[in-house]
Amino acid sequence: MVLSELYWDHHIPLPKLGPLQSRLVTAFVALVCFINSYDGDFVFDDSEAIINNKDLNPDTPLSNIWKNDFWGSNLSSNSSHKSYRPLTVLTFRINYLLAGGLHPIGFHMLNVALHCVISVLMIDVFAILIGGLVHDGRGAKLSLSPKASFLAALFFASHPVHTESVAGIVGRADLLCALFFQLSFLVYCKAFQGGDKKFSVLWIFGSILLCAVAMLCKEQGITVLGVNAAYDILMVCNLNIYELAHQLLSRRKSADIGGLVRSGLLMRLALLFLGGSFLLYARWRIMGTGPPSFTEVDNPASFAENVILRIVNYNYYYSLNAWLLLCPWWLCFDWSMGCVPLIKSATDWRIFWPLLLWCCLMGLVYQALCSQDSNKRRTLTFGLVLLVIPFLPASNLFFRVGFVIAERVLYLSSAGYCLILAYAVGFCSCHWKKHKRLLRAATLTLLCVNVARSAQRSQQWRSEQSLFASALSVCPLNAKVHYNVGKNLADRGNQSAAVKYYREAVRPDFAAAWMNLGIVQNSLKKFDKAEQSYWNAIRFRKKYPDCYYNLGRLYADLNRSIDALNAWRNATMLKPDHSLAWNNMVILLDNTGNLAQAELIGKEALKILPKDHTIMFSLANVLGKQEKYKESEGFFLNALKINPNVASCHGNLAVLYHRWGKLDLAKRHYELSLRLDPSAPGTKENYNMLKRKLELRQRTVG
């Protein structure tokens, strides 16, 4: 297709660079913005998605990533978030394998590299959306908007709202989804290389396949089909939506449906629709038990009984998302738990913001549909398409989401904002020629401010301490912010300071905060208060296995053995693979002399967790005390196969052999235990006792 060169592109206050130079500059800007996160820690959600996710471990079967959700829970579980992103988890697993463990630098570097690649590809995406897919006589691709596409890509590369996706390792899902989203769109465009009236079905199927890959990185990938359809309608078929709608409504002139059929548009839209329907059906089947369940504190607006209030608050959330794109200064890792109070009456002044948002959107829509300038119509329409369509899965329109605002979901939508902003700069440059220097200064200032803010924000994402502290000034009402600050203080040993933040966090009945307050109170020997805090946590979250586990530990410390066993049994009923609860039951029954019951519990646990070496170790100790030496030996050896470098396991196996009379084997495992841990309690004394016994045996034999 051939379109006239954009009249406003050469007015944009940027130097005209060649394709290679513009890509290198864009990649460099993207790198500068987020490179200081490369040696950051695992922070916030990284602990669940990476550190505690067994699917990353090479010892876990690779097939598990296709059965479990993003966080490592089985998709069939009612507690699963149903976030099915196996390809993202696969990249985490590769990072783990290459680094030889959980070393965050490789994870961070790949995220930064992905953002650089995506920013560079945005030049091609923007060039097509602004100026169309144009080729010279030799088939080489041309750009009719080199400056506009370059500027929009720079805005995208440097936007601070991307920090969560780039500096937070779990943001890998958004990055991979965006990458395959772009590739799906670019492959769809390749279907029309033969001219307007010819298209390749093979390339269209390739685009749908890449859409499926994007969905396997994050669910948002499905929205690329909507962008592809919009491109086909507006750019390939050059339909004027306003005129077409006017013709259909006025009936003064019948729409040329036959022309649409001959152009192949209806066939292509049918392919996109069928492909999208199949992918959505497959995704629904994978979820198994239906959509995930969220609590009121995760998304309070979705629980409002009044439909009007629900709609008003949803629109208020949209306005806050728009504000983050316009002014990304107030950024926070979490916006739930009271951070954004609900609008509950018409007198609430915040109603002004959704009204303003819709006025601005309606103005843009009017210009996109009714402007006499075809370039303006096309650019603004695609800007709105990119802004709105990728955001739809997070809009609460189709299903309830588990957050109020999430900066990561704006990663793709920000591309639409950047396209509109680049057009605004070009429009002003074209019509305010006398102020060109001022516009150039303003544009460069905006880019520099974005780069500086992105660098500052990625610095805050380097550690949990700085990340959580940065949120206190943005969301002082957010219980989760106070909870995480308190937990970070507690982890660093500052228990008394942690109590203050936990008490602030429990205001909105935040179960995790109550549990962690109980943990801190327990460590401070305030046992009665700790018990009450644990029960408060369970009151607000009925199915809370970790809280029952901690409650059991409290009862064990107080020698309330029956209560401890009941609490741990509750934990294993709610979460059958709760290894710590099973193991503590075995140990407590062992310590109280209930060896037969301890044996039954240990064997029951190993039916659920057949490769848990800690339970094998505890059960082996129980069997040894019952003089079931052969069976005990089997569990010790199996535990050492799984984890051969546990000094206590070698030491206890040596004691077993010592009692059993297998003194040479006992000597070997005592020595292995002391080699691994020279200060192992009791091992050296037992070893010396064994050596005296062996010396006595040798003298007797001699």
Automatic annotation (TrEMBL):
Lineage, broadest ranks: Eukaryota, Metazoa, Chordata, Craniata, Vertebrata
Q: Per the annotation, which location comes first and is thus the protein's main one?
A: endoplasmic reticulum
InterPro entries tied to this protein: O-mannosyl-transferase_TMTC, TMTC_DUF1736, TPR-like_helical_dom_sf, TPR_rpt
UniProt TPR repeat ranges: 511-544, 545-578, 647-680
Question: Which keywords are on file for this protein?
Answer: Endoplasmic reticulum, Membrane, Repeat, TPR repeat, Transferase, Transmembrane, Transmembrane helix
Q: Does the keyword Transferase apply?
A: yes
Give the SUPFAM superfamilies listed for this entry.
Answer: TPR-like
* Record EC number: 2.4.1.109
UniProt pathway annotation: Protein modification; protein glycosylation
DUF1736 domain residues are: 290-362
Native species: Cyprinus carpio carpio
> One GO CC term of this entry?
membrane
- UniProt name for this protein: dolichyl-phosphate-mannose--protein mannosyltransferase
Q: Which Pfam families match?
A: TMTC_DUF1736, TPR_16, TPR_8
Q: Name one GO biological process term.
A: endoplasmic reticulum unfolded protein response
Q: Which PROSITE patterns does the protein's record reference? A: TPR
Q: Name one GO molecular function term.
A: dolichyl-phosphate-mannose-protein mannosyltransferase activity
The highest taxon in the source lineage is: Eukaryota
Q: How does it sit in the membrane?
A: Multi-pass membrane protein
Transmembrane ranges, per UniProt, are 112-134, 169-188, 200-216, 222-244, 265-284, 351-369, 381-403, 409-430
Compartments it resides in: Endoplasmic reticulum; Membrane
Recorded family membership? Belongs to the TMTC family.
